[in-house]
Amino acid sequence: MLVTLCMTLLVSSVIATEKESGLPRLDDMKAVKAFIDSAEVVVIGFLENEESLGYKELLAASQKVDFVPVAICTVKEVWADFSISLGTISLFRKVDNYQENLVLAEVKKLNADGLVNFISTNEVRYITEYNQVTAVGLFNSEVKTHLVLFANRGSKEYNKLKERLGALAPEFTGKFLFVLINGGVKSNFKSLNYFGLKSTDLPRVGIYDGDSDMKWLLPEGEISTERVRDFCQSFLKGELKNVKQAGEEPKTEL
Predict the structure, then answer these.
(1) What torsion, rounded to 10 degrees, do the Cα atoms 158, 203, 122, 117 define?
(2) How far apart are CA 46 and CA 35, in angstroms?
């Protein structure tokens, strides 16, 4: 654990320094793997050199999304291990072990803002706040089941619950995407209504299964790590299939 923390801090320090003058280079597979493991979401430009198409745009984009580590790899022998043969910018994320590729030769208009949008829409983390931008990455993921935390930003529980469920999420990598929905935002009222909720009912936790288009609510009570873990396990075991869905009339729960 201590070694991993030190590696993460070292990578972050190098990135912060090099972003000012250029993007850090990853010269072998070991460096690439360490970089991917250093954060929940990272971006790597598989480019031949700093003069290649996309480098200056990626450098500019990296300064606008400084919360995402960005580097380049110029070693084509490494490219092959990621099924890459042409200049490509790839986003790697841990939550669903996903690699999103942007092949530069196929981009009609390449600019920094476009790359910022590419990164932002695919930046799905262990717990991701739902909005119009992140919705793209969430619903494009191969993981179609969402554990949803409904909470009002600014409430005393908001940050505590976000941190608690964010810590639980890695246990369900590849099985659930953990999604935070701010019940105080008008554009999210439709999501609340879908679960039969109002902002005054929050905080609450639900599960949405995209494959079956079904949804369930965790019964009212403490939103503890243990209760949410058991709720997720109940879904995975198929125990929720015969339970009335959230939002049905009369309002029922697990």
Answers:
(1) -70
(2) 13
Q: Is the dihedral of CA 133, 165, 197, 142 positive or negative?
A: positive
pLDDT in tens, 136-179: 999 999 999 999 999 999 999 999 999 999 999 999 999 999 99
Residues in contact with 120: Cβ distance below 8 Å, sequence separation at least 6, in sequence order: 65, 133, 134
Cβ atoms 119, 61 nearer than 8 A: yes
**Residue corresponding to tokens 């939550």:** 95
SS3 35: helix
**Chain centre to alpha carbon of residue 80:** 25
- CB atoms < 10 A from the CB of 85, how many? 11
Place of tokens 């930003």: 153
Residue type, 201: D
- Which tokens is 123 given? 């930046």
* In 28-144, beta strands by DSSP E: 41-46, 70-73, 88-93, 98-103, 127-129
Among the listed residues 105, 107, 141, the one whose alpha carbon sits nearest the alpha carbon of residue 122: 141
Local confidence band at 35 (pLDDT 50, 70, 90 cut-offs): very high
Q: What is the pTM of this model?
A: 0.83
The answer to whether residues 202 and 150 touch, using CB atoms and an 8 Å cutoff, is yes
Do 54 and 105 meet the contact criterion of CB atoms below 8 Å apart? no
Residue 51 CA: distances (Å) to CA of 44, 85, 119:
16, 17, 22
Choose among 91, 101, 92, 210: nearest CA to 145. Answer: 210
